[in-house]
Here is the input.
Amino acid sequence: MPETIENQEREQPRRRQARGERRIAQLLEAAASVFCATGYTAASTNAIAREAGVSPGTLYQFFPNKEAIAIELGDRLMHEMRETYGEALAPVDPATPLKEAVGAAVDRFIAFNCEHPVFFALMHGPDIPGRITEEHDALHATLHARIEGLLSSFLPEAPPADLARTAHMCLGMYKAGLELVLAHEGTERDAYVQELKNVLIRYLEPLVGDRLGHGGDAWRSTP
Here is the structure.
């Protein structure tokens, strides 16, 4: 049955909106590629438009400048990263071996960053937009709080200052290892991922014991 004029009029804005969303996704994908290749500072809207296969004028219909593109891309990645954090740092069964718990968390974080290498490029590059810096700082604080919360659940006797310090060390070691992981590919990348897991496990093992739920008495502060 043919569409009525009224139905056609309702559908046209939806179709335009869908086309607009596809174009935005295309531009963000192109921007991610350019930011990874050249860094944020050296990237240009012309390069992003060229990578997307569109004219600069088309790009400017959706984004007024490079910063707006980076902010939109960062916002979307931040949202996805928060979901990854939630999954990776969810409460674990007290009987879970430390090796298994650390391995699962690291695998989730590494998978996200390998799938979205632009996240690292945007978050750690020089001269990134201030809003992205602020959101990343907030995300970092959230991640630290989640790690600290997990530590406190199986180290109930640990002083708050020691828990905070241990969480900072875990996060610092992960970030340092991530940079090495992203700098390699294939089997060499896999080897660095395993090294990162080993570092975290060997750091935490004397504190929490062999299993997550049985390490409270093993806590000891570093002199």
In short: The CA atoms of residues 71 and 189 lie 29 Å apart. The longest helix spans residues 5-38. The two ends are 81 Å apart (CA to CA). DSSP finds nine helices and no strands in the chain.
